[in-house]
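Worked example 4.2. Below are the chains of a multi-component assembly; read each line carefully before continuing.
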Amino acid sequence: MSTTPISRPRRSTYRHGDLRNALLEAGIALARNGGPDAVVLREATRQAGVVPNAAYRHFASREDLLLAVRAHALAQVARAMEVELDKLHPSVGALRYARDSVRAVGTGYLRYAHAEPGLFKTAFSSHERVEADPDPAKAGASGMNPFQLLAMALDRLAAAGGLPPERREGAEYLAWSAVHGLSLLICEGPMQGLPEPVRDVIGQRLLDMVEKGL
Amino acid sequence: MSTTPISRPRRSTYRHGDLRNALLEAGIALARNGGPDAVVLREATRQAGVVPNAAYRHFASREDLLLAVRAHALAQVARAMEVELDKLHPSVGALRYARDSVRAVGTGYLRYAHAEPGLFKTAFSSHERVEADPDPAKAGASGMNPFQLLAMALDRLAAAGGLPPERREGAEYLAWSAVHGLSLLICEGPMQGLPEPVRDVIGQRLLDMVEKGL
DNA sequence: TAAGAAATGTGTACACGGTACACATAAGCT
DNA sequence: AGCTTATGTGTACCGTGTACACATTTCTTA
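Applying the procedure described above to all four chains together yields the following structure tokens:
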């Protein structure tokens, strides 16, 4: 398959210079097309032009590299949400703005799942909890990670009277469940092949359901 | 680790007699604790007492074995739904019965995800579409697979007037998304450790949301 | 019923992946 | 200059999926 079966001396210096980063970038590229399982240590080192074991100077294990890729993916999800949130104007009124905020968070999530299915799956393939994780590597420009952005939107909704206080607790999990479930159906389930507009319609219907049912 | 490092002659006959089944059972056991990734061909053959390559007389590949395990898991999901459906009595009135049917389907799904997380993950780890799959190996006692049971419950709801006809189409995907998302949060996500009653409460709240929002 | 065909298990072998361990080389500090 | 530390290399081992040839048993069919 490869035109260069053996191509060790891809650089003159003994040191790589930026290996950790190169491995991370390679890992991200692998995850992008192929999802978490495609993140293969040896392949990342190949792309970086080093010997397999060199990776262990920067990552404790394959799992550790995957975690770094995952953090990057989570940050991108957060950024996708922020893009949608930034489209809104508070001037439409508190309640409307709050509802739109929840929708924006969901729309960003769904859009990212559709645009980057491999990275999306990687972001949520771990059992690690992101809810209260302060790691800025998993956050967007706002400093909040996807879960925190959702919580913020729901707080906004509760404050605006769009969500009775007694139903505020745990509402994250209800909204997250719905949107996450659809995202999976979209990026690896039966809704993979659907054209974008159709998916967007279903996505908005799902958000209608959440808004009405929350 | 193993007390019998090499234990080839676990039987006297050259033929195993029921190898396909033995491999399937082993695969199911592996999936039960460990999920899809734990379904390892060589381990299954070890448990069956045959040489690794013997598996290829019955399964084209590891993937093929996994598919068989998956069919079994899907059938169990269907059966879990049927258990919940069988608890209902149509005498409560058509609309109430229809609503309860949708809830029963969701409850069965959630219960199974909680009771058998490994098999649950295996059931839905494939990209294969189950919607119109007539394979009886994936169905419950009723002959319907999980998706078909959901569709039936939604039909019932629409017939009873609990779901406007214009919102019937695609409703499967909305309900499925919500329940599937929560199932994942329960069986491999942040809600793993929660005690059963708490999870049941959240599950019922989620079904409330679906019922109200559909 | 004997012989050939088909089914099923075995042995050997290879490539790929993760990773441990010892060694080499370079960079930084004293 | 010499020591320490960081980083890349070489060699090696084990586990996994799977191809290919061979052995053994069962089934078919003449």
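Take a moment to check your reading of the output against the notes. The longest helix of chain B spans residues 62-86. Confidence is low (pLDDT under 50) at residues 1-8 of chain B.
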